[in-house]
Amino acid sequence: MTTTTTATKQFITSEQLLEHWQGHRNLTRRTIEMFPEKDLFEFSIGGMRPFAKLAVELIGIGGPALKGINEKTTEAYHEDAFVPTNKAELLKKWDEETEVINHYFNMISEERFQETFNLFGQYEFPVYQNILYFIDNEIHHRGQGFVYLRALGIEPPFFWERF
Amino acid sequence: MTTTTTATKQFITSEQLLEHWQGHRNLTRRTIEMFPEKDLFEFSIGGMRPFAKLAVELIGIGGPALKGINEKTTEAYHEDAFVPTNKAELLKKWDEETEVINHYFNMISEERFQETFNLFGQYEFPVYQNILYFIDNEIHHRGQGFVYLRALGIEPPFFWERF
């Protein structure tokens, strides 16, 4: 009988993943900035949420989720925990969350990334999958924001420019 | 003098990344399927490309890029190497590329992910960054496809359902 052993290969380190995520967050921040104040809170296509609402969803996930992962709390996700009334407020909160994300992300051990956790008491997946979901969800919604900008006749930022 | 040593933590293995990517590719496939034939090739918002064009871009990147990384060729990216005339052709090619991606991705060593490579003779970055870009670019464009579907009055697939 032949035994086949497949060596486990590392794809990326946690430091590289955090830098990648913060690069995306910086691009999303510039996308928020490009919206005219009124359109940020009101413009919509096909019954979807305005971009401010999508950004608030992202703010409600990243930092709070990482805090929950570290403290092993399963408190539910609160979509309406933060309700900005203008772009400046939204950007200020965005920047505060940058530090929250850096703080809590760096506390997660290599072993923990592989452990299953019931995030927000609802999403029971390995921690690395939950974190990839935060980033994917941000890229997904920002892509939608790019369509809003194009529909408004505004050229979005370059997708490949991150910092 | 105090020396601070930061241990390098693995975030994910290459096997986990490939599964993650193919999950996204499966969701994109279902997004293509949901478009009415005509709209797939013609519907557009704000002067953007129809979803078929975006899907063809994705097909032109994943497999060919991984082949280039493995064979260390710097042949340019060809946007028009594949021009489908209907949805079935597009989906057939999509499925063929699934195998191409699996084949070439698995040939990349752990060390190689960290090496810089001039992809398509144009994008000189560490291999892991190039691969993350392929996935991000797909999520970005699929998010745009979701807006097209909503604007067409069609409910997109669930973002979190991958397989």
Automatic annotation (TrEMBL), chains A, B:
Q: Which SUPFAM superfamilies match?
A: DinB/YfiT-like putative metalloenzymes (SSF109854)
GO terms of molecular function: metal ion binding
Q: Which keywords does UniProt give here?
A: Metal-binding
Q: What residues bind a divalent metal cation, as annotated?
A: 141
* Keyword Disulfide bond annotated: no
The lineage's top-level taxon is: Bacteria
Which Pfam families does this chain map to?
A: DinB (PF05163)
Family stated for the protein in its record? Belongs to the DinB family.
Protein name as it appears in the record? Damage-inducible protein DinB
What species is this protein from? Chryseobacterium soli
